[in-house]
Amino acid sequence: MNLNWNEIFVGELNISYITEIFIRTIIMFILVLVILRLSGKKGVRQLSLFEVAIIIALGSAAGDPMFNQENPILPSVIVFAIIIIIYRIITYFASKSEKFEDLVEGEPLYVIEEGQFVLGIKNDHTFAKDEFFAEMRQESIEHLGQVKTAILETTGNISFYYFSDEEVVYGLPVLPKAYNKKLTTIVYEDMYSCTYCGNSTLLQKGPNDCKRCNHNEWVKAIKTVRTI
Q1: Prediction pTM value
Q2: How high is the pLDDT of residue 211?
Q3: Read out DSSP for 8-47?
Q4: Which single residue of 80, 84, 120, 169 could bond 145 by disulfide (Cβ 3.0 to 4.6 Å)?
Q5: CB atoms within 10 A of CB 159
Q6: Average pLDDT value for the chain
Q7: Which band of pLDDT confidence, cut at 50, 70 and 90, is reported for residue 44?
Q8: At what angle do helices 73-96 and 15-39 cross, to 10 degrees?
Q9: Max Cα–Cα distance, the chain, nearest Å
């Protein structure tokens, strides 16, 4: 099998075409920035799923005219205009109706309440425990017992509300070395946390099922206060 590397990497590329690609790319890039500025958003962390869909649509409309001579720029400009009009219409109705806003943007998701995972949260496809633990570690959270409430916002940010130092309870550790020491049979009596729901309780020797979620995998619970 003989491969034509020139056809694969260069094709019909010439100085004139390179210049055209350069100009097209600059124009389309500026147009995308203008449309994003008109949307009112200032950063990726502020984007909801709906707005991510808008970004993908803009990228798709902008991509081909950057390098394809058969795609003029004007049709993409029309697509941009339609996208921003649709965006404005949807955001208008979302501001008028809470139900419509929840339909489009989604709803905030309670992940932790009173130092434990909300039951059923792990069945939700939007919840990834490892990523959530990483977010907690970045906020200097050592275990679930330090957190009174945690809410996964529609933008992907997580809002944490903490117990005071006096109110901290035993909780499931989120540091990898501690969390990975999982047990299904308790060797000695102590406070342990269920790895599934975060329920912390005093366990006797032997196998134990969690009375909250019926799972049987445990990690030694800790009760340290937050240090910032």
Answers
A1: 0.65
A2: 92
A3: HHTTT--HHHHHHHHHHHHHHHHHHHHHHHHHT---GGG-
A4: 169
A5: 11
A6: 82
A7: low
A8: 10
A9: 79
Chain center to CA of 156 = 4
| Residue 221 parent element (H or E) | none
Residue 154 has pLDDT above 90, yes or no: no
Domain boundaries, the chain: 5-103, 109-220
Helix axes 15-39, 49-67, angle to 10 degrees: 160
Residues 142 and 36: beta-carbon distance below 8 Å: no
Question: Do 141 and 174 touch, CB atoms closer than 8 A?
Answer: yes
Inform me whether the pLDDT recorded for 150 exceeds 50: yes
Dihedral sign of CA atoms 36, 38, 44, 50 in order: negative
Residue ranges of alpha helices (H) inside the chain are: 5-9, 15-39, 49-67, 73-96, 98-105, 129-138, 176-179
- Each as own residue / partner, the long-range contacts of residues 105-109 (CB below 8 Å, 24 or more positions apart, any chain) are 105/48, 105/49, 105/50, 105/154, 106/48, 106/49, 106/154, 107/154, 108/151, 108/152, 108/153, 108/154, 109/151, 109/152
Q: What is the mean pLDDT of residues 33-54?
A: 66
Round to whole Å and give the CA distance between 203 and 198: 14
User: What's the CA gap between 37 and 79, in Å, rounded?
Assistant: 16
For 136-147, b/e burial (b = at least 16 CB within 10 A) is beeeebbbbbbb
